Amino acid sequence: KNEVEQSPQNLTAQEGEFITINCSYSVGISALHWLQQHPGGGIVSLFMLSSGKKKHGRLIATINIQEKHSSLHITASHPRDSAVYICAAGRETSGSRLTFGEGTQLTVNP
Amino acid sequence: GAVVSQHPSRVICKSGTSVKIECRSLDFQATTMFWYRQFPKKSLMLMATSNEGSKATYEQGVEKDKFLINHASLTLSTLTVTSAHPEDSSFYICSARSLGLAGFMEQFFGPGTRLTVL
């Protein structure tokens, strides 16, 4: 079992739909990151969470430390949101080293 | 937010040559930078942790003589792929660690470098 697991692996949505991507982790963490990777490879850091909830535009990230679970929500999805979304856990025992989930490939169709 | 750049963004080289990739933190000082490698349709794999002024710490299975890392200043780390072979073709990504606005240590990722070895 991977230390960081994401679901679903692939997600196809229609423009405008509300999207949720889930991330569960089994290690103690100091922070959890949500990253976005577009075709062509560049990675953008969306959120870093250690507790609660953060919002940026149409993106919302939540984390439940007790349940070791985080979710990334996209409201009013748009084709330009199509990308791979990766969660990564920063472990308490290893400083800033990150353990990455396998990623969720999101495709938003017009 | 903080910006990390990588140069070049793409490089094609012949087998046997060496390739240097630069990672720069543009508006902050990074005591620690990380180098990752990503295979197609796979997640990022940490290759090494680079601390300014000291030797890099390599992950198990990563050849330190093959992948030379130098972190000469607080804003620059370089990865040199020596005697590159086609199996070294990959997407290489760096990240830089810095104290964020909220007081937490954050990681900021570079855009990546696509290496193709012919």
Write the layout of secondary structure elements.
The complex is a heterodimer of chains A (about 110) and B (about 120).
Chain A: E1 4-7, E2 10-14, E3 19-25, E4 29-37, E5 43-49, E6 52-56, E7 59-64, E8 69-74, E9 83-91, E10 98-100, E11 104-109
Parallel strand pairs in A: 2-11
Antiparallel strand pairs in A: 1-3, 3-8, 4-5, 4-9, 6-7, 7-8, 9-10, 9-11
Chain B: E1 4-7, E2 10-13, E3 19-25, E4 32-38, E5 44-51, E6 57-58, E7 67-73, E8 76-81, E9 90-99, E10 105-109, E11 113-117
Parallel strand pairs in B: 2-11
Antiparallel strand pairs in B: 1-3, 3-8, 4-5, 4-9, 5-6, 7-8, 9-10, 9-11
What would you say this structure looks like, in words?
The complex is a heterodimer of chains A (110) and B (118). Chain A is mostly beta strands. Chain A is built from no helices and eleven strands. Chain A is globular, with a radius of gyration of 13 Å. Chain B has no helices and eleven strands. Chain B is mostly beta strands and 118 residues long. The mean pLDDT of chain B is 89. Chain B has strands at 4-7, 10-13, 19-25, 32-38, 44-51, 57-58, 67-73, 76-81, 90-99, 105-109, 113-117. In chain B, a hairpin with a 5-residue loop joins strand 5 and strand 6 (57-58). The chains are: A mainly beta (110), B mainly beta (118). The A-B interface holds A 30-31, 33, 35, 41-45, 48, 50, 86, 88, 90, 95-98, 100-103 and B 1, 32, 34, 38, 42-44, 46, 49, 91, 93, 97, 100, 104-112, 114.
Structure summary:
The complex is a heterodimer of chains A (110) and B (118). Chain A is mostly beta strands.
Which features would summarize this protein structure in a list?
heterodimer, A: about 110 residues, mainly beta, six-stranded mixed sheet, B: four-stranded antiparallel sheet, about 0% helix, about 55% strand, globular
User: Kindly, what is the distance between the CA atoms of the first and last residues of chain A, rounded to a whole number of angstroms?
Assistant: 36 Å
Poorly predicted sequence stretches spanning 5 or more consecutive residues of chain A? none
Based on CA atoms alone, the radius of gyration of chain B comes out at 14 Å
Uncertain runs of chain B are none
The multimeric state of the shown protein is heterodimer
Largest sheet of chain B: 7 strands, mixed
Helix content of chain B: under 10%
How many E strands of chain B?
11
Bin the strand percentage of chain A.
over 45%
Query: Nearest-angstrom radius of gyration of chain A?
Result: 13 Å
Shape of chain B: globular
How does the helix and strand content of chain A classify structurally? mainly beta
- First-last Cα distance of chain B: 37 Å
Helix content of chain A: under 10%
The ordered H/E elements of chain B are: EEEEEEEEEEE
Number of helical stretches of at least 4 residues of chain B: 0
